[in-house]
Amino acid sequence: MSLIKRHRGKTYPLGSTFDGKGTNFAIFSANAEKVVLCLFDEKGIEETDRIEIKENDFGIWHVYLENIKPGQIYGYRVYGEYKPQEGKRFNPHKLLIDPYAKKLVGELIWDKAIFGYDIDSPEQDLSYSEIDSAPYVPKSVVVDEHFDWQGDVKPKIDFEDTIIYELHTKGYTKLFSKIKDSDRGKFKGLSSPEIKQYLEWLGVTTIELLPVQAFFGHQKKRKRVNYWGYETLSYFALENSYLSNGEISSFKQMVKSFHQKGLEVILDVVYNHTIEGNHLGPTLCYRGIDNESYYTLNKTNKRFYYDSTGCGASFNLQNINVLTLVMDSLRYFVKEMHVDGFRFDLAATLAREKTEFKHEGAFLKALKQDEILRSVKLFAEPWDVGNNGYQIGAFPAGIAEWNDRFRDVVRRFWRGDERQVGELASRIAGSSDIFGYNNRNLWTSVNFLTAHDGFCLRDLVSYNLKHNESNGENNKDGSNDNWSSNCGVEGIEVSRTIKNKRLRRARNLMSTLLFSFGTPMIYAGDEFLNTQFGNNNPYAQDNVINYLPWDAIEPEGYEFANFVKCLINLRRSLPVFKRRYFFKGQKVGNSPYKDLAWYTEKGTEFTAPDWQDQSRQSLSFLIFDGKDLLFVILNGSSKKIEWKLPQIKKSNGFEILFDTSNSLKALDNEEKIIMPAESIVAIKIAR
Question: Rounded CA gap, 514 and 168, in Å?
């Protein structure tokens, strides 16, 4: 062991902080009896020093070491009682990562050594393991934060102009042949000129990345791959497999290059649970540092955890130090990584206090008062699997929410279900019945048809049933409520007639998404009709099920991509979609037109009996923005309909913006049209 000059250090900031001469180390543990800092050689194999941290202020253990520089590899061993029945799971035989580590090295090897108990014992986690886990776990690294952002300017796209594009870093780039092999599956590949050119061409504004905080997707000897990344290990370090040569700068370079093209970057973040899982999970970080503080324990038996996530144990944001960890992580990614926002996975869990969802929970209050986080986009997945976990519409103003009710009703309407028209109208208009209160805006509803979780668009019109056999769970995983339709034949290989029917339905679905009010989100690959072969839960599929097949896009896919591009351009060009506030259904100024009105095929406004007609499968709406009129007809029935247009005074002409049937070239007159079956027509009416 070498002699290292030490000082008492500081309680803040937490983590490892290099000041040019040495490094301060600080870690929170309220219940530890002793904390030891372990230093490793440059390969992270040999433990070179053990330094007992003797300073403990307010539960923060801290020490300053001279001449410890960036690149130093380290970990912690934390001592205390091992009494699982009381919630105490300290085990100094387990090397632990620093919760504030900005970088990790080494692989996570799924060996018995990483568990705090003897996994072969019949007593399970009530037993105790004395195997050293250091050779099997990733280790923390002291970093130099410097990066030349060269005057980086965030796009700061208004919410009303935002079009989200959800993608997986690896899946999006792995088969993209126009970028270097070494860059595929990494941030560097994602920031390639070819990818950025495509995103610019498509017209989306905001790239939402599935989890990129370290999750160690390639865990040796583990049965299932953590491909999506929703089993996060660290809330500061990036996923190593996405970095080029282990350099954090490759992520920063990606963000900077996206900003140069006017594209935003938001992160899907998982602060509700960790990879450590339930009482039988490994001891890698939080569990071994202070299990009672970092996780929400069962009230009656502290051996077990309260779990509103379905993933083993809820992260305990009720603890002020754990809440601080999450807030520090968010600020770090805004300040140091320049990201433009966050999507909170299972956000209802984050707002729970004493296991109950609170509309003004500590996490939500902390978000809203933070001057840094108030400047970025915030999105909530407004549910979890706990008691009273469905909380759509319950989040405060300024936080947008995923709207699964939009997804479901649009799917049902276009597969031909009856009794959908009333709810569909509400969803198209921005879901004011859910979000139209407490000063919330029209963009609060994040409208989506598909996402990483569930069927992709092509599979939505190609399969009646999920086909998840390859997941190894006997097809029992994944949702059974997909509201999908195969148009007569199950699977991808079908006749031209069935294929054409599916193409029209896909056009209808995408058109409804992009011509509805709220913030639209597109799942990457849907724009060129990618398939996941009927798998609606490919969370562990690190293969062609999840990789986008850029060199194998079918002709129909190219055609559909051009159609989606045109829809996006139309949406972005129409002033009516710049609207920020909910519709009132009232006349605009002195004009004869309402801001939004719904019409039947008779050319008359909907009445109560029209809304109550359970067999109705069609509707239309007229929107006036003070200048031009937009008229959209949706015919979900299998029959064509003669549609009388509303009476418009002093019209200067009707322009068909799009027609998903591809059968209408122009309007013969301004009184009526023959509306094709199962189609949408959008008409711009100049005044």
Answer: 22
